[in-house]
Amino acid sequence: MQPRRISILGVGLLGGSIGLALRSRAKDCQITGYGHRKSTLDAALQIKAIDQGYDQLAPAVAGADLVILCTPVGLIRSLLAEIGPLLAPGAIVTDVGSTKRSIVEAAEQSLPPTAHFVGSHPMAGSEKRGVQYSRADLYDGALCIITPTPRSNPDALNQVESFWRLLGMKTCHLSPQEHDRRLADISHLPHALAAALISVQDDPTLALAGKGFLDVTRIAAGDGALWRDILIDNRDNVRQSIAKLQQELEMLQSLLEPDQAQMLQAWLDEAAQRREGMREKNG
Predict the structure, then answer these.
(1) Least enclosed by CB within 10 Å: which of 63, 88, 97, 270?
(2) pTM of the predicted structure, to 2 decimals
């Protein structure tokens, strides 16, 4: 997809990086940004992530071929309802939300039949937040999960997929339901676990922590409000993921005996092999 006019609603790290990535890939595209804070819009303009910035939705989405919702999950549903009457006929809307069921449902209920929604989740980002951390290469080689439904417009689906590929991403398709179930295991639970690992330490212990602990808990530095919304929105799947982890930890407890040393090593070796396989697969 080579959009003529794109509207990025929320010019933080992800939205700003989309704008920067488009600069070298779709040079004729006009990039409009929307945000509540003038300082954020000014910063996005300064780094040339957007061409125009607005704090009102009507001028931000006017005439846009593609509208990308880059706000936190908790704001996306209300934003969909607000932009519905403002969209040009034929406009395509997508998002970068980390949950999909509630967003896709809201889009299919809120948007007019003349606009088309296709859910997206680019698996790229950082524990850092803010447009000042935007990078033109943030999406290069990363995976974007696209979540069509039986109601998705086929042409809109193809255009959204080609857009993310234009930014250098690989793509795959999951239903919104399967997306939320699998992401609870590989994204939402790990963030909560990193926060828990920090929470159980006292300050003198944290002062001794080395690089390994910092690596394991890096994502705990993410935006608490953003992750609050994700965990609550996907709470049924997150609870199931916690239950699976609890079972694994209970098994580990049973292996912490001298007569279980071989079983403990086998458990550790299997995890190491699976982790190594991921590294080889992803380069």
Answers:
(1) 270
(2) 0.93
